[in-house]
Amino acid sequence: MRFGLVGTGYWAAEVHAPALTAADDVEFVGVWGRDTAKAARVADAYGTTAYEDADALFAEVDAVAFAVPPDVQADLAVRAARAGCHLLLEKPVALTATAAHAVRDAAEAAGVASVVFLTSRFVPPIQRWLEETAAEGGWLGGQATLLAALDAPGNPFGASPWRREHGALWDVGPHVLSLLLPVLGPVHEVRAAAGPGDTVHLALRHEGGASSQALLSLTMPEAAAGRRLAFYGPAGWRELPGGLAYEATDALGVAVAALSRAADGGSPHPCDVRFGADIVDVLAAAQDDLARTATGTAGAGASR
């Protein structure tokens, strides 16, 4: 599969480019970025070509990997799908439900395969644990915590403008939802409350009747950063084991292979653009509930 890369920042240069270079049965054709000098540097580092026009890159490849801010990704992904390119998308797919639906609809209309790189879902031990937990069934609810310290020294995402503007809900929220939904099912109702900094508390009602809670933040002190995922039901609690370390480049390699299989006539991956759009729907509903609370007009929550 001939791959193009859209993006020139840290995640593009340190994760996407090396993963595409190392992937089996992949030809890394070229890079496009909004900064042509950065695109040239990434291309030179990985022995590929820097493109000055995104549509020219789309015309030369079978698939496109995106590593740009979500609002930039959404418009470009629609153009790539219409050019017949399979899509390896970053999370969130977009920053509004309307934009996410546009990407989903463009991919479906063009008949292209898609994968959203929700990192933990492409770590084999975590995916096996999720599959076993979902198969067990009977879960009444779940709890998830993902607390990060964006201001910690050396954090490569510390200068990310879109993360600073949109916060934990949109940055780490997709990761948490990608783990809760496969076990508890689609979300029917969303409530959200703000905490200190960009901290957000989510309370979710799932279509099957289960409920879940999530605690998200990018503004924790470094000593408070951490993550936890657990489900509870008649058999008690089941918690995601600790120590399941992984390299992001390895996980992306799994995602590249998954996209290749889907594009080659395989079944759609569970983390396709439809799932990505569903996650954006939940995030947008939470954002709406936060806005109602901030203006003193909070009602009964946002239903989907």
Summarize the structure.
It contains 10 helices and 13 strands. It is an alpha/beta fold and 304 residues long.
How would you portray this structure in words?
The protein folds into 2 domains: 2-120 and 249-270, NAD(P)-binding Rossmann-like Domain (Rossmann fold, 3-Layer(aba) Sandwich); 124-241, Dihydrodipicolinate Reductase, domain 2. The chain has 10 helices and 13 strands. The chain has helices at residues 10-22, 36-45, 54-60, 70-82, 97-110, 124-136, 161-171, 173-184, 248-263, 273-294; strands at 2-6, 27-32, 49-51, 63-66, 86-90, 114-117, 141-147, 187-194, 200-206, 211-217, 226-233, 236-239, 302-303. The strands form 2 sheets. The protein has a 7-stranded mixed sheet. Strands 3-2-1-4-5-6 form a 6-stranded parallel sheet, sandwiched between helices. The chain is globular and about 55 Å long.
Keywords:
single chain, six-stranded parallel β-sheet, 23% strand, Dihydrodipicolinate Reductase, domain 2, 2 domains, Rossmann fold, alpha/beta, 304 residues
Q: Which fold does the CATH topology of the largest domain refer to?
A: Rossmann fold
Any idea how many domains?
A: 2
Instruction: Write the element-wise H/E pattern from the N-terminal end onward.
Output: EHEHEHEHEHEHEHHEEEEEHHE
Low-confidence residue ranges: none
Class of the largest domain in CATH?
Alpha Beta
Counted by DSSP, the helix tally is 10
Radius of gyration: 19 Å
Write down the overall geometry: globular
Strands ordered across the widest β-sheet: 12-11-7-10-9-8-13
Oligomeric state of shown chains: single chain
Helix proportion range: 40-55%
Number of DSSP-assigned strands: 13
Q: Considering the protein shown, what is the CATH homologous superfamily of the largest domain?
A: NAD(P)-binding Rossmann-like Domain
- Which strand-content bin applies to the residues? 15-25%
Instruction: Sketch the major β-sheet.
Output: 7 strands, mixed
CATH architecture of the largest domain: 3-Layer(aba) Sandwich
The helix/strand class is alpha/beta
- Overall mean pLDDT stands at 95
